[in-house]
Amino acid sequence: MTSPLNVPSSQERWSPRLWGTLLVLCAAMFLDALDVSMVGVALPSIASDLNLTTSTLQWIVSGYILGYGGLLLLGGRAADLMGRRQVFLIALGVFALASLLGGLVDSGPLLIASRFIKGLSAAFTAPAGLSIITTTFKEGPQRNRALSIYTTCAATGFSMGLVLSGLLTELSWRWTMLLPAPVALIALVAGLKLIPHSDRPEGKRHYDVPGAITGTGSMLLLVYTVVQAPEVGWASARTLLSFLAVAVLLTVFVRIEQRTASPLIRLGVLRSGVQVRTQLGAAAFFGSYVGFQFMVTQYMQSVLDWTALQTALAFLPAGVLVALSSAMIGPVVDRFGTPRILAAGFAALVLAYALFLRISLTPQYAAVILPSMLLLGAACALVFPSLNIQATTGVDDSEQGMVSGLLNTSIQVGGAIFLAVVTAVITAGDRGDSPQDLLDSFRPGLIVVTGIALAGLLITLTGLRTKADQQTVVVAGSAQDAAAPEPAKVAVRD
């Protein structure tokens, strides 16, 4: 199915309405990513104001990830079956209301509940928004350009969330919760006017209700188990039984998906080496970054005694670098292909984390912190757009929502799992509250996130093959190729 805004040729200029549609989708993705990171710098203030323990404080982060990661498969398939526009706009409205609720509540449980609702709504806006883009822009340079802008907005939101959080926390942590509400409402009003109506699927729609129940249940239980494991114990009966229940639910889910006529996720997608590398790479990328951010914000405020604003400004170079790269990533991907860009991005990520291992009780901004942040910004700018382009290339329009949901599930579940692992490592090494004790507990966590990033690099390197092993698929030619007798080709490695 084709949107009325679909771009037929890479030479054609984008209309103002097309740009407007992309900006609305970018705004929603910016808010989704912003909300994951913006709470980070505000955590110490929230803990002090609401008298929360460290384990409860983690749930303010994990509650959002729980709703987001647990329902993404359902959100992606709902976009394909119920209509991308409808799903996107309804979920965006819920996101705005939950943001308002989060800024007004006066207890930890209610704040966590509002965060869960926001994550739940993001689980529908993210795959719906991404699939609107991939079904609107023609595969090739046009889509790569749109996806590079879209995913750079997401990476910018995640990076700038820390900066905005630092600025707003100086006034009150509540402003970090309230800020997304008016932006989401503006995007909702604009979306009602700009997003096309014709993306509702034609014909009879079949809903995989058993698959939705077992798939969503398994993801929710998996995320819940891994975020609770550091508190109750990884080897406790509760944790082991929860993992067993996850395995049972996933087994039932797979059996259902193999037999149903309209599966929540077509399992054949996972036979692709490209897709497997993309999903594992996404989990490693986001998981390592969430764990790194969780430690660094506490290191800067608890060990270095920096203010929330100083902490936010320390992350600013990474955010600025990501924001400035939005117009450049698409052409770079067109020229070098996603496997090479991903390898370069993960290499920068490993270097950033490894360099940060040199931290001490005194700030070493020029020698350690600034170079780490610049490398981190370069990694985000290269990896995040490339993952989205690689995941959606060659996928039929009718399955774009499904693949988008799968990618975002890998990102969020990876974030939840590795944040829980890092938290467990930090807690195990916690010997006291002195700055030296805190620093000693953070170092093993930094080693873990470096190892996760290294694993991601090794996974992406398997996608680099010789020319003889490459396949090519025809896509729309670029403007420079307009006079050529054959259309441009993009390398697809499997």
TrEMBL record:
Pfam families: MFS_1. It is a multi-pass membrane protein. Residues 21-468 form the Major facilitator superfamily (MFS) profile domain. The keyword Cell membrane applies. The chain crosses the membrane at residues 21-44, 56-75, 87-105, 117-137, 149-169, 175-195, 207-227, 239-256, 276-296, 308-329, 341-359, 365-384, 405-426, 446-464. PANTHER family: BLR6921 PROTEIN, MAJOR FACILITATOR SUPERFAMILY MULTIDRUG TRANSPORTER MFSC. This is MFS transporter.
